[in-house]
Structure formats: C-alpha cells, structure tokens
Specification:
Elements: E1 4-8, E2 14-19, H1 25-38, H2 53-65, E3 70-76, E4 79-88, E5 98-105, H3 114-128, E6 133-139, H4 143-152, E7 155-166, E8 170-180
Parallel strand pairs: 5-6
Antiparallel strand pairs: 1-2, 2-3, 3-4, 4-5, 6-8, 7-8
The structure holds coenzyme A.
C-alpha cells in the first residue's frame, strides 16, 4: 500500500511518513539493525537478523504493492529514523479479519511524537484495508510503548510472564493488546 504524510515533530523539525519502496532497502535495513542493537524490547537481536539487501528490497516491493499490508518509514532530513508496519495474521477466512502492528524508532528520535503518529497512520490504514482487529504485544517494562498503545485505545487482554527471554535480564513478561477497528 502506498501513502505519504508530513508531520511536525515536538522539536519543530519536519518528518515525512510514507510507505517504503524497494529503493529504500539499504536505509531500512540499516535502521532495522540499528534499532535492534539499541533496545532489549524487540523480539530479535541484531546478530540474528540475516536478511540480505536483495531480500529486503523484495520485501519492501511486495509491501508497497500489497492491498492489505503496509511498511511505513519515518524520514527526518532524508534519513530513515523509524519503521512501523501492519501485517496480516493470515489469509484464511477465520483469521483474515486480524492484523498485527510492529514499530521501532532510532533511540535518538524517541519522544518527538513519531511513534504516536506512525501508530495513528497504521490504525487508519488497517481500518481502510478492511481489518476488524489490530493486535500487538509489548514487554511489560516498556513503559513508553505501553503508554502509547493505551493512549491510542488498545486494550490489554492478557499476559505471558515468560513471553521472551532476554540475554541481559532473563524472562520478559509480554502484554497482549488488541483494538477493534
Ligand atoms: C515505543 C516507541 C515506538 C515510541 O516511539 P516515540 O516516537 O518515542 O513515541 P512518542 O514520542 O510518539 O510518544 C508516545 C507516548 O509515549 C509516552 N512517552 C514518550 N516518551 C516517554 C518517556 N520518556 N517516558 C514515558 N513515556 C513516554 C507518552 O505517553 C507519549 O505520548 P504523549 O507524548 O502524546 O503523551 C519507541 O520508543 C521505540 O521505538 N522503542 C524501541 C522499540 C520498541 O519498543 N518498539 C515497540 C515494541 S512493542
């Protein structure tokens, strides 16, 4: 899916939110690896990411051409600083009303409003794409993310105390959220 929107950040800078294209492959991969090194709240470590540039480009092309999935990027002064996406849970009848949401932003750009705006855009997109429910999971200690999801209207529906196992801190509790669209 293709889309584009300019937003103003809390520090006054302009930020472009748009769908990623094949040509963004290297910048997206760089940002993906960077954010996975910066935080322990994501579900993989940078050294586990084996995606090649060709695979990334093909992935972004498929997303841009897709009618029910979105890979959104945030650009500040021409640099990709964040990624967010709406991913189909599945194409079978019983689950095709559900989509999941994921997001990661370069730590240097946290707290400027990018996450909330990307989330808003993805929620709007998911509704337009025909999904009836948007879902996500977050580490219980990830207070920024939990606050952002609650503020956007997501409701908690359960927890898994051993949802992930960090190399640094051991078990991480996962909080499950859903939003009816
Ligand atoms: C979670 C994340 C996406 C938030 O993005 P962001 O651009 O920093 O978020 P925003 O600036 O839009 O702030 C979102 C909300 O978080 C809360 N928040 C922001 N900064 C905060 C801080 N320092 N402490 C506590 N809450 C904070 C606020 O409620 C804020 O909303 P408000 O400013 O309207 O009140 C970002 O921190 C990130 O990429 N983290 C690493 C990856 C990650 O955790 N992804 C989510 C996995 S579930």
């Amino acid at each position: 899916m293709r889309c584009s929107k300019w937003i103003k950040l809390k520090d006054g800078r302009e930020c472009l939110l748009r769908n990623a294209e094949e040509e963004d492959g290297q910048a997206v991969l760089d940002n993906f690896l960077l954010t996975h090194e910066q935080t322990d709240f994501l579900s993989s470590y940078a050294d586990e990411i084996t995606l090649t540039l060709e695979q990334e480009r093909a992935f972004l092309k498929a997303k841009a051409d897709s009618s029910n999935e979105l890979e959104l990027i945030a650009l500040v002064e021409g640099t990709v600083v964040g990624l967010a996406g709406v991913i189909s849970i599945g194409n079978r009848y019983k689950v095709r009303h559900r989509a999941s949401f994921g997001i990661s932003i370069d730590r240097e750009f946290w707290g400027l409003g990018i996450g909330s705006e990307m989330l808003k855009m993805c929620i709007e997109y998911a509704g337009r794409a025909g999904y009836e429910q948007l879902e996500l999971e977050a580490v219980a200690e990830n207070e920024t993310a939990l606050a952002m999801y609650r503020k956007a209207g997501f409701k908690e529906y359960g927890r898994n105390p051993r949802g992930m196992k960090s190399r640094i801190s051991g078990y991480q509790e996962l909080v499950y959220f859903r939003m009816e669209l």
